[in-house]
Amino acid sequence: MTLTVRIKTLTPLWTGGLDGTMDRIHETGILGSLRWWYEAIVRGLGGSACAPTEPRCELTGQRLRLYEKAREEGKDWWQALDKAGICDACKVFGATGWKRRFRLEVKSDTQLTWQPRDSVLNIRPPERARGWYLLPGHVGTLTLKLEGEEKVVSMLACLFLWLEKYGSLGARPQLGYGAFRILNRDEVVEKAGGWKWGLLQKEAQNASPNSKGKTPDHPDLRRLLFFRYEFTPSKPGWWTQVPGVSRVGSRVQPLVTHWHTVPTTPALKNEWRFNQWQGNRREEVEIFGTLHPDRRRGRIGATWAYRENGVWFIHGWAWMPQKERLAGQLWKILADESVWAHVLGVQGNLTTVPSGQWKELTSEDVRKLLQGVCHD
Ligand SMILES: [Zn+2]
């Protein structure tokens, strides 16, 4: 079965490149994000997915023999890989000795957000010495052609619908890249119709990710907080007041005019980290990441602000820390509408999942959340 997904970027897409800049759209950057989310979904449904920080699955030696034996006994490839102990993510995305179950081809009609491709946009809020350095991603439309077995392709259709609403595509979601809109929605929803996320639900291993010692700290939908801030500014120039953006206003103006987006992510992160967060350095680094001495990615992804039909949006997620004390503290900051209004200078409406207060989701909550997105 073939699935065609036509998308329009809402914020620049970043897929990496050989020299650290983005010469073109690289399929690997798109595949990486699909896999990251799929792994978080699999874990969120109570299943297991290997992570880059541990040995990945390999279909070799004894495992390969188990797989072949199961196949001889009439099991399908999915069941046979179960017998061989290959995780649900590797089943679809591939592992040593096992090919990825779908092909991806990308045709793009995009351009660099600004020129040249190695020029950085430095967003420096007033009290920061260096601030954030943004490279130009790509903006425009893309056509993704995915080909594989029906079950796999339906799942991918659901995954795209999920990423559109709650996630992003490509790399550097922490810096706000990769928000997108699906242009041929009806077609994608139709293809998604055959998929049930419940197929991945594992009752036996359904331990909470927070049960200490049992589950390593990997992204897991049960411990992700999702947020969306929606606002309708009365003045078109609202963004010129956003900390750090004003001093590069002449470079941001074309982004607003042509692409309806504003790099608000640094200002929000700056506020959350340096003005709102209270805690020791170790905890701060655990949540917000660091470049020194070793690079550690932050746990928060927030898109740039983007405009659709006259309304502005920012959406994103936070991968909550295992310590509930820290998770509660982070929730308080991210779910505080007044912090958003203060940074952006515009009153808006903040919605979160879960709502009301921070609470780890159950795998059944996760299944319902995922399934709702596939079929709406
Ligand atoms: Zn694996």
Automatic annotation (TrEMBL):
InterPro entries: CRISPR-assoc_prot_TM1795, RAMP_III_fam
Methyltransferase listed as a keyword: no
Name of the protein this chain belongs to: Type III-B CRISPR module RAMP protein Cmr1
Record keywords: Antiviral defense
Domain CRISPR type III-associated protein, chain residue ranges per copy: 6-181
Gene: cmr1
Keyword field contains Nucleus: no
Organism: Thermodesulfatator atlanticus
GO biological process annotation, one example: defense response to virus
